[in-house]
Specification:
- By secondary structure, the protein is mainly β.
- The chain has one domain.
- It is built from no helices and eight strands.
- The protein has strands at residues 2-6, 12-16, 21-22, 25-26, 36-40, 44-49, 54-59, 72-75.
- The strands form two sheets. It has a five-stranded antiparallel β-sheet with strand order 4-3-2-1-8, with no helix packed on it.
- The N and C termini lie far apart (50 Å).
């Protein structure tokens, strides 16, 4: 029963409950739960699982550099419950000329 966090352009990270892995990286459930953060930048996205137990950096693909329109969470073959979701818009580190 996988659950996916998908970004535009089919960029995704997939958690497999049976093997307890996010993509191919081990990410063990604690009390039947997993926690992760998704950080999105212009050229890439990063997934940090359970406060750093696993870490994935991937290119954003065709939409690199464009504003992010959406992030979706889906479950196949079971239920997915989101207990908390927080988003932040981060200001650019680049100074305007």
């Amino acid at each position: 029963m996988p659950a996916e966090a998908a970004l535009p352009s089919e960029t995704q990270a997939c958690y497999h409950f049976k093997s307890q892995k996010i993509d191919e990286m081990p990410l063990k459930m604690k009390d039947g739960k997993i926690t992760f953060r998704v950080l999105v930048d212009r050229p890439m996205f990063e997934v940090v699982g359970c406060a750093g137990e696993c870490y994935k950096t991937s290119p954003r693909g065709d939409d690199a550099g464009k504003p992010l329109g959406s992030i979706s969470l889906t479950a196949q073959g079971g239920a997915l419950t989101v207990e908390s979701l927080t988003t932040y818009k981060i200001k650019s580190a680049w100074k305007k000329k």
